[in-house]
What we know:
Elements: E1 19-25, H1 33-54, H2 59-71, H3 74-99, H4 107-123, H5 133-162, H6 166-186, H7 227-244, H8 246-256, H9 258-263, H10 268-295, H11 305-315, H12 320-337, H13 345-359, H14 361-365, E2 366-372
Antiparallel strand pairs: 1-2
Amino acid sequence: xxxxxxxxxxxxxxxxxxxxxxxxxxxxxxxxxxxxxxxxxxxxxxxxxxxxxxxxxxxxxxxxxxxxxxxxxxxxxxxxxxxxxxxxxxxxxxxxxxxxxxxxxxxxxxxxxxxxxxxxxxxxxxxxxxxxxxxxxxxxxxxxxxxxxxxxxxxxxxxxxxxxxxxxxxxxxxxxxxxxxxxxxxxxxxxxxxxxxxxxxxxxxxxxxxxxxxxxxxxxxxxxxxxxxxxxxxxxxxxxxxxxxxxxxxxxxxxxxxxxxxxxxxxxxxxxxxxxxxxxxxxxxxxxxxxxxxxxxxxxxxxxxxxxxxxxxxxxxxxxxxxxxxxxxxxxxxxxxxxxxxxxxxxxxxxxxxxxxxxxxxxxxxxxxxxxxx
Length: 374
C-alpha cells in the first residue's frame, strides 16, 4: 500500500459544553424592572470602586465622602438641589423624546439656546428696564422655552420630512449652538472683553430661600431657588401627559410600533416635530433656570448638563418622576465629586453607570435560559 493510500485518522471530536445558555425574548416586561435597574447601579458602583482602588484610592471613603458632601447638612443639600434643577429639566427633555424612540442627543445645544433666549430678554432688552421681577422672569422663561423649542424643531423637521438621522443632526447642532453663544459673549454682549455678559439686574434673578432669611432665619445661606419648584412642576406635567393623556399614548405607540400608529391614523410626522419641540423647550427652560437662578449671566463655558441628562433619563427608565430622583443623585455626584482625586473619577462613575444601565436592558427584554446540551 502506497503512502497516498494510507487512510487518514478521523479528526478528534470537539468537546461540547454540558450546558447551553440562550436568550429568549420576553413577551412582556418583568414586573419588577426597577429591581434590575437597582442591581445595575449597584454593579456599576462595585466596578467604580474597583477602579478607584486601582488608582490608589479608598472606595468606601470616597462614597462616604460623596454622601456627606452632598447631603450632610441643609447647606449642601441646598447646593445639590441647585445642581439638580437643570438636570431635572434636561432629563425630562431626553425622557420625552426617548419614549418616542427619537434619540435627541442635542439637549446640550437646546439648553444653550434657552440660556441665550433668556439672556436676550435682559440684554436687548425685550422688556422695559423698570419692569417688575415677575414680568421679567416670566418673559425669560417664555423666551428660553421658545428658543429651545425652535432649535429642537430643526432635527424634528429633518427627521419627519427628509428621514435624516436625528442623532447626527442633534449632535452637530450642539457645536453650532456653542459657537453661537461664543459669538455673543465674546462680541456684542461681552463685559469688558471677557467671555461673559454683564451680571443680570436683581429683577432677573430667580428668588432663593436665602432671600427670605429675614422672615425665616433658618433659610439663611440656602441657595436653592424657585427654578427647583419649576422643575418639579414640569416633571408632574410631563408625567400626566405621558401617563394620562391621549398624546402620551400616541407617543408610546409611535415609539413601540410606527406601523400600528400609522394604521391607527396617527400623523407621525406632525408628532415627531411636536415631540422634538417639546423636548427642546424643556431643555431651553433648563438653560433659563441656570442663568437666572445660579450664575446670573451668560457664559462661554458649557456645563455639560445636556449630556449628563442622557444618563439621568436612562437611569430613570424615561419615567418623568424617576428623572427627579436620578437627577438629584447625579447632582450629588457632580457636586461632591469635585473634591475626589483623580478629578476624572466622577465622569468615570457616570460612564460606568450608563453602560451598566444600558446593558441591563438585555435582562428586561430577554430571559436567560440555561439547559443541558443534547
